UniProtKB/TrEMBL annotation:
This is Delta-aminolevulinic acid dehydratase. PROSITE patterns: D_ALA_DEHYDRATASE. It comes from the Bacteria. One of its GO terms (molecular function) is porphobilinogen synthase activity. Keywords: Heme biosynthesis, Lyase, Porphyrin biosynthesis. It catalyses: 2 5-aminolevulinate = porphobilinogen + 2 H2O + H(+). Pfam families: ALAD. The keyword ATP-binding does not apply. Its EC number is 4.2.1.24. Catalyzes an early step in the biosynthesis of tetrapyrroles. Binds two molecules of 5-aminolevulinate per subunit, each at a distinct site, and catalyzes their condensation to form porphobilinogen. Homooctamer. The keyword Thylakoid does not apply.
Length: 327
């Protein structure tokens, strides 16, 4: 019988030694909480397919933002759900549109203590649910949409947002938004580019959360899940156009993309752990099939290990609390 000369198990013997050699840690400050605010609500309302996530009223949004900041999260990403929608998504640009009002509220409440971000996309505001304006034949008109994004970006900046998150996957969107912000005097507003965003079925529960009107799919603008090199091209373009941060989305099913993007660029890389990723864990945990908290932290650790420096997750507040107890 021969005995092993090398024994990796030595470094796994006790909690103390495991802690000493732990390679990846998730810090609360790296977590960003996506939040939904619904026009016309007096109280928050649960989202059935996202247990624990709600559509906020303006009041409940402010309170939840304070809680998130107290828990130590690094940022908040806001999504607005308007009461009425139109062909062009005009409520996204109006100063009294729900998202722009919510930005003002949250920036006033916690703007000095955290980073306030906003989704820069038309899909919540259009009657057809697409991320852009439509041509008469019903396809998404890239360049007309860019003009709308430019206007929306300036409206969000005027509301006080720190970071805009263009998520519509229109070609040239980052450059157009950067120039519009600069021309309006908002040189200090950053851009978190949804650089590699896949046409994913994992967004299902999000569409409930924003009461999406979409019929059909977004495959003519979001990426094919089969493609990795295409993401690197998208990311390079976005950085060249002025992205301050880039994002890969979804997260867990795309860790290979995340790692490749991390190696490709020197700007901070974020990952969005999307609604379907969250819902799968919650559903399995509700059935008693997995240990919810451990799985939650394991997914976040994996996303961090693959190369994300920033993680958008619906668990942000709760995970921040758990992580604080741990370290
Ligand atoms: C588009 C947008 C979507 C998500 C974030 N921004 C939906 C889509 O592209 O269809 C999905 C996020 C999630 O599933 O949690 N504004």
């Amino acid at each position: 019988m021969s005995y092993p000369e090398v024994r990796p198990r030595r470094l796994r013997r006790t909690p103390a030694i495991r802690r000493l050699v732990e390679e990846t840690r998730v810090a609360p400050a790296e977590l960003v909480l996506p939040m939904f605010v619904r026009e016309g609500l007096t109280d928050s309302r649960p989202v059935a397919s996202l247990p624990g996530v709600v559509q906020h009223s303006r009041d409940s949004l402010r309170k939840a933002a304070v809680e998130a900041v107290q828990a130590g999260v690094g940022g908040i990403m806001l999504f607005g759900v308007p009461e009425t929608r139109d062909e062009t998504g005009s409520a996204g640009c109006r100063p009294d549109g729900i998202l722009n009002m919510a930005i003002r509220d949250v920036v006033t409440e916690v703007g000095d203590a955290t980073v306030v971000m906003s989704d820069l996309c038309l899909d919540e505001f259009t009657s057809h649910g697409h991320c852009g304006l439509l041509t008469p034949d019903g396809s998404v008109d890239n360049d007309a949409t860019l003009a709308a994004y430019a206007e929306m970006a300036v409206a969000q900046a005027a509301a006080g947002v720190h970071v805009v998150g263009p998520s519509g996957m229109m070609d040239g969107q980052v450059g157009v938004v950067r120039r519009a912000l600069d021309a309006a005097g908002y040189q200090d507003v950053s851009i978190l580019a949804y650089a590699a965003k896949y046409a994913s079925a994992f967004y299902g529960p999000f569409r409930d959360a924003v009461e999406s009107a979409l019929e059909g799919d977004r495959r003519s603008y979001q990426q094919d899940p089969a493609n990795l090199r295409e993401s690197l091209r998208e990311v390079r373009l976005d950085v060249a156009e002025g992205a301050d941060l880039v994002m890969v989305k979804p997260a867990l099913p795309y860790l290979d993309v995340l790692a490749a993007v991390r190696a490709e660029v020197d700007v901070p890389v974020a990952a969005y752990q999307v609604s379907g990723e969250y819902a799968m864990v919650e559903a399995a945990a509700a059935n008693g099939w997995i240990d919810r908290d451990r799985v939650m932290l394991e997914t976040l650790t994996s996303i961090r290990r693959a190369g994300a420096q920033i993680i958008l997750t619906y668990w942000a507040t709760e995970a921040a609390r758990l992580l604080r107890e741990r370290y």
